[in-house]
Amino acid sequence: MSALLEVEELQVSFGGRTAAVRGASFRVEKGETHCLVGESGCGKSVTALAVMSLLARGGQRSAKRMRFAGTDLMSLSDREMVRLRGNRIAMIFQEPMTSLNPAFTIGSQMAEVMTRHKGGTRAAALDRAAELMGRVGITAPGMRLGQFPHQLSGGLRQRVMIAMALMCDPELLIADEPTTALDVTVQAQILRLLAGLKRELGLSILLITHDLGIVARVADHVSVMYAGEVVERAPTAELFRAPQHPYTRGLLSCVPVPGRVQRDRPLGSIPGVVPAIGPGFAGCAFRSRCAHADETCTRTIPRRRAANAHDYLCRLEPDWAELQPA
Amino acid sequence: MLRLIARRIALGVLVALTVMTLAFLLTRLSGDLAVSIAGPQATQADVEIVRKAYGLDRPLYVQFFAWTGRAMVGDFGQSYFFKDSVANLIQKRLPITVTLGLVGLSLALIVSLPLGILAALRENTWIDRSVTLFTMVGQAVPSFWLALILMIVLGLQLGILPISGTGTWQHFVMPGIVLAFTAIPALTRLTRSGMIEAMASDYIRTARAKGLSRARIIFKHALRNAAIPVVSIAAVQLGFMLGGSIVIETVFALHGVGYLGWESIAKNDFPVVQAVVLVLAVFYIGLTLLADILNALLDPRLRTG
């Protein structure tokens, strides 16, 4: 399988002081849903924005390699990057209530993506918009096109955002916590919708979330992020069955996973908070919260291979017994 | 939308009626009108004749309803000083004030919108700080002082513009600049803060993620939202400008409504004073109404109100 998006050693810093992303590496394969998971503040969203080249002012990115469908994203000019955004890479956000411009109709906001990237008439773009709104489960799309964002509920707005992202038939959809602001039933609908789109349109999805429940339901592969690093990467089933990094284990102990947690044992928690990492930090960023930490954790940590497509960043050897196929 | 307009108009009529009452009462509060019209040399008998001739001997409410009743049909009575009907006087002077106001507002918008946008896009750079400094200085400069400086430099030293009078369009340039300066600081700062807020918003992040051009992001998506408070304030500023035009028209001897108001106050020509106050108030009300309608067009969330 060839990777659609390949990120190696991505570094993002703001004003040279805060290192938001410190050498994150992951691959999104064609037609798969890849989850970036981690606590808030671990650099998930910044990673996504760095891929889109949409970092806030003062944000600096560098990477050993960042390729999208064979194109080196790092060497693209602003003009070339603008042509990819919304066209071949689309993005949706956490806040459906504020992500649409309050001053323009849904139709006008959807149509402009299409006329911008693919040309054609506004009427044709509106037809496509209506079709996609039907596709994402919005009833009476004709009426919705003429409405303004404030006339729509949060769930509807997120559907509009998804439909708008699909206008140009993108290869990759980056979804940054797309369901966090929605209530649980709407959340489930949106996740089903995304899964359906992936299946039917062959869309690749980079889904950013802090919710392991979502990961378990939709992800093919998972990258666990901690303090700006990807500390563990694995296929979803394997990650849930045999997590190797102490942080991943900690995360999984915090949520009830069927078959992993006994009914009468309390759920776990990870003590402390994500530390702020300055430049020149060495060693494992999790060591201050880790039960297995010793003095070797201040040195450079090796990336260990646990299985095919499963690796993690820790001094500890893999637990081979756990990794045996069940 | 129509309901909104109807409500605003009804509200405007109420405000106009209030202003009429206040204008009427305030002129009466300034002293015995019969005495001041009759002049310092008049005897008690002369004053009584004047009082009777002008109907000032009638009870206050009779005078008030007589005046409002006629004012409704556009009859504001006779000026005591100009020997002409008040309606005629205002009709002759109004185009000058309106021209001045429009020139002032256009200049103000031409300067403050680009400056505000530029400062917002270059937030916290030397460009932004220069713009802020400029607005602060602009705020602090009194308009009569600026008027005199312009007269000296452009009028006397360079001799490119006439320093007073109403004859040609050149006569409106300097007063227009001075008038614009009363609105530029507020409008610039409002545009700047509105643009900064808009550019940091989620919908601009969406617009960027859609791959739209920078021009479209700034001028369509951000400016449309930043313009909403600017429109409201611009209308209020134009109202202030009409008030400020009393000073500016006097300094530049532009014979507009403001100048007329100043003359009639000095001469106790109270039918003119009342009418000028009312006309300026109606203007102000009209502008606010226009701003409300424009805002409803700009911001769909206001349309249901």
TrEMBL record, chain A:
One of its GO terms (biological process) is peptide transport. One of its GO terms (molecular function) is ATP binding. The keyword Magnesium does not apply. It is a peripheral membrane protein. GO terms for cellular component: plasma membrane. It is found in: Cell inner membrane. Residues 5-252 form the ABC transporter domain. Gene3D superfamilies: P-loop containing nucleotide triphosphate hydrolases. The keyword Magnesium does not apply. Involved in beta-(1-->2)glucan export. Transmembrane domains (TMD) form a pore in the inner membrane and the ATP-binding domain (NBD) is responsible for energy generation. Belongs to the ABC transporter superfamily. This is ABC transporter ATP-binding protein. It comes from Bradyrhizobium australiense. The lineage of its organism: Bacteria, Pseudomonadati, Pseudomonadota, Alphaproteobacteria, Hyphomicrobiales.
UniProtKB/TrEMBL annotation, chain B:
Its main location: membrane. It is a multi-pass membrane protein. Keywords: Cell membrane, Membrane, Transmembrane, Transmembrane helix, Transport. GO terms for molecular function: dipeptide transmembrane transporter activity. It is found in: Cell membrane. The keyword Transferase does not apply. Residues 94-291 form the ABC transmembrane type-1 domain. The chain crosses the membrane at residues 96-121, 133-160, 172-190, 226-252, 272-298. One of its GO terms (cellular component) is plasma membrane. InterPro entries: BPD_transp_1_N, MetI-like, MetI-like_sf. This is ABC transporter permease. It comes from Bradyrhizobium australiense.
